[in-house]
Amino acid sequence: SSELTQDPVVSVALGQTVRITCQGDRLRNNYASWYRQRPGQAPELVIFGNNNRPSGIPDRISGSSSGNTASLTITGAQAEDEADYFCNCRDTTNTKPWVFGGGTKVTVL
Amino acid sequence: QVQLVESGGGVVQPGRSLRLSCAASGFTFSTSGMHWVRQAPGKGLDWLAVISSDGTSKYYTDSVKGRFTLSRDNSKNMIYLQMSSLKTEDTAVYYCLRWNTRGAFDIWGQGTMVTVSS
Residue A56 needs a FRET pair 20 to 30 A away by CA distance; which of A48, A69, A80, B88 works? Predict the structure, then answer.
């Protein structure tokens, strides 16, 4: 399958750790990137190349990948981490080269 | 500063056409592959199309192939999305974005809303 699958909703207590996963065959041989979308805003890049942060993204946000699963972890979740998170992966061998996961809504309790 | 600004959205009847524009600034536009992504109300992100840095190569997702056309003008730092035969399911916020050399969409516009309704 060329699709990327994410859990729709995840909740985390303030200050605790949450991991969001993204599953898909194309992740086995290609890098994942992650995007955060706060309410009413455009998405923004938070992780690229599986585990790299752009400047300005706090180090409590981290990424990893193994096999067909990419993960984004928020350590010590803050209120401002409440958002929708989307994974993306480019596969140039696929008829749809770029695909986004369905998104995970993270709620900070 | 580095930014992308979309324009051209609005309300249009099914079957009609609309052209979206995206103005780039603050980065080397002429060497950047550019994309369009849309987001229907309350839904996720849907990748639509890409145009290469020189405009010679374009690729579309199946749902818009033959109806949407991408172009760019590197002298004006602009890209355009010509949308025709619009359907109600094309209703969405449309974003233009840059795919960078490190393999990610690092610059996003604020989006422009397209509503297809009779």
Answer: A69
Side-chain half-sphere exposure of A26, counting CA atoms within 13 A: 24
For residue B99, what are its two tokens? 């795919």
Model confidence over B13-64: pLDDT tens digits?
999 999 999 999 999 999 999 999 999 999 999 999 999 999 999 999 999 9
Residue B45 and residue A100: Cβ atoms within 8 Å? yes
B6, pLDDT greater than 90: yes
Closest Cβ opposite residue A42 in set B61, B99, B110 = B110
- Are the beta carbons of B104 and A96 separated by less than 8 Å? no
Residues of B in contact with A102 (CB under 8 A): 44
Write out chain A in H/E/C secondary structure: CCCCEECCEEEECCCCCEEEEEECHHHHCCCEEEEEECCCCCCEEEEECCCECCCCCCCCEEEEEECCEEEEEECCCCHHHCEEEEEEEECCCCCCCEEECCCEEEEEC
Task: Please tell me the least confidently modeled range out of A73-82, A90-99, B41-50.
Answer: A90-99
Other beta carbons within 10 angstroms of residue B86's beta carbon come to 21
Minimal Cβ distance to A97: which of B59, B95, B108: B59
In one letter, which amino acid is A63?
A: G
- Residue A2's pLDDT is 56
Cα of A13 to nearest chain B Cα, Å: 24
